[in-house]
């Protein structure tokens, strides 16, 4: 949307009043640049910090007859295993990524307000 609004803004706010042609490949290039910036942020985050995996387990014991499990070995025990990935810089990386997205959204809103009467 930002690329399309930038196109409309450029066409209607052209100070030289000459014919301006913004092709679709210009828009595609603008979107590609924004996606590459996203990828750079994510790749740098993954390369610098990486992720650490933790394996956890939850043991569920049959609550109806817990005595049976301890004494006779009869009953049902269910183990649930889960794997979590975490690292120290997650909040910083997400803050940078969301900050970048907020700037892009702010520019798009500015374009929208400037072309609302077109």
Q: What do you see in this structure?
A:
This protein has four helices and two strands; from the N terminus they run H-H-E-H-E-H. The protein is elongated and about 70 Å long. The protein has a two-stranded antiparallel ribbon with strand order 1-2. With 118 residues, it is of the alpha+beta class.
- Are there runs of 5+ residues with pLDDT below 50, and where? 67-71
Radius of gyration: 27 Å
Largest sheet: 2 strands, antiparallel
DSSP summary, beta strand count: 2
Strand order of the largest sheet: 1-2
Structural class: alpha+beta
Quick recap of the structure?
The chain is 57% helix and 17% strand.
What topology does this entry show?
Layout: H1 2-12, H2 24-48, E1 52-61, H3 66-71, E2 77-86, H4 90-114
Antiparallel strand pairs: 1-2
Helix pairs in contact: 1-4, 2-4
Task: Offer a few descriptive terms.
118 residues, alpha+beta, two-stranded antiparallel sheet, 4 helices, 17% strand
């Amino acid at each position: 949307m930002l690329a399309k609004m930038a196109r409309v803004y450029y066409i209607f706010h052209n100070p030289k009043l000459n014919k301006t042609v913004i092709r679709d490949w210009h828009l595609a290039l603008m979107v590609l640049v924004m996606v590459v910036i996203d990828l750079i942020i994510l790749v740098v985050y993954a390369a610098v910090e990486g992720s650490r995996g933790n394996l956890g387990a939850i043991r569920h014991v049959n609550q109806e007859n817990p005595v049976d499990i301890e004494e006779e070995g009869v009953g049902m025990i269910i183990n649930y295993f889960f794997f979590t990935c975490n690292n120290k810089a997650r909040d910083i990386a997400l803050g940078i990524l969301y900050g970048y997205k907020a700037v892009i959204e702010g520019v798009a809103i500015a374009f929208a307000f400037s072309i609302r009467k077109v």
